[in-house]
Amino acid sequence: MERGHNILTAPQRPGEEKVAAFGTVFFLVRPHPRPDDLSLAVFAINDWATRFVRGQLKLDEGTFSDMVTKAGDLDAAGSAFRTTARGVWRHVLSRPYIYSSLPDDEKKSFVWDQLVTIWQVIGRLVRGGVPARVVFVDAAFAPQLAAAQAPFTGQGRRPRRAGDPGLLVRLRDILAPYFAQTDTAAYTARTDPADAELVKLLYRPLYEALCAIGVSPGSRTVD
Length: 223
Known about the structure:
Blueprint: E1 24-27, H1 39-53, H2 64-70, H3 74-94, H4 104-123, E2 133-136, H5 143-149, H6 167-175, H7 185-188, H8 193-211
Parallel strand pairs: 1-2
């Protein structure tokens, strides 16, 4: 139930608007494509190309600007870009999609892919501005929190992956720099301030909910 699948209520009275028919979603496991699904590879090469041409990545060959500057003309620059992109494409096709084995830069891209997938599902619940309830069932979404809230399991026993913060914390951390104060290093490190405004516009409700992870309802601040 992602983008393009809006299940709405049937108006019961004249003038009544259609709103989301479902108010709760249960994520039983973390979303992950099948091994033969090319979607993550396509997302990865698109993410790489977008950031590379904007000067946010530097390869052994240098930045995109360096590549264009060194080329004799636009045809040569295009050929150099295609050669580099082909190597990146082969890499993303052959890499194992095991989070712990990915380089830091690819981990960020992987988390962004997961964020978009989850948020698209949640978006089906809030059509018409109605409230929604989201439940993450699997402890793997937040192992540290699950371990802290789990019942006593016996002396010396430690829940599996209890040291892993989990996907939900990573989603929060990937969004955090965009919500930082404008005078902080985390904010000024970005090259395009428009990115921060776009992220705030799209993901503020999700970020605020993720920031409340581990906070008891009675201690949350209500604006």
